[in-house]
Amino acid sequence: MKNLIASLVRRYSQKGILIDTNILLLLLVGSVNQERITKFNRTQQFIPEDYELLLEFIAHFQKLVTTPNILTEVNSLANQLGEPERSQCFTIFAQFVKNVALLDEYYVNSLDAVNTEKFVKFGLTDSGILTLSKEKYLVLTDDFKLASYLQSVEVDVINFNNIRIFNWK
Predict the structure, then answer these.
(1) What CATH number does residue 118 fall under?
(2) 98-152 pLDDT, tens per residue?
(3) Are the C-beta atoms of 32 and 89 separated by less than 8 Å?
(4) Which domain holds residue 74?
(5) Residue 49 in 3-state DSSP?
(6) For the chain, how many structural domains are there in total?
(7) What pLDDT score does 168 carry?
(8) pLDDT for 56-95, tens place per residue?
(9) 43 neighbors 25 (Cβ within 8 angstroms)
(10) Sign of torsion, CA 30 36 39 41?
(11) Rounded Cα gap, residues 9 and 46, in angstroms
């Protein structure tokens, strides 16, 4: 598995990595307060070391890729944080979105997303990930069901839990 991860990182380091909602939320919450990661119900499956591991991992990529749907989900989930972390998270979120050098945002037409074979199973955001990433970007997710499906249709994907298990660096 470590060799597969290393191979995917090499292949996509220039092209970019598409980060799914929960992983992007971990990045934002950890940027505000690493101790909050285990206490916030939307990131409690992670630990502060996961945030550090994520930073090290995404540093291998020249581009972070997202969609408006992913950003909307992250915004809605971050809105559930209590103050002052909520405001701090939105400040970092705004800086992140404004920094074009860090983030490439691509619009996926909702009609294209709902016309994917598995829209009913996965919904708009994940169908958009499938539509955008095929043969273009590596996908980073913690969603086992999504990762398994993406692999089955030959979309390159890494389940963040595999990075955690192997402590990949």
Answers:
(1) 3.40.50.1010
(2) 875 667 778 887 887 777 777 778 778 888 888 888 778 999 999 999 999 999 9
(3) yes
(4) 2-166
(5) helix
(6) 1
(7) 59
(8) 999 999 999 999 999 999 999 999 998 999 999 999 989 8
(9) yes
(10) negative
(11) 22
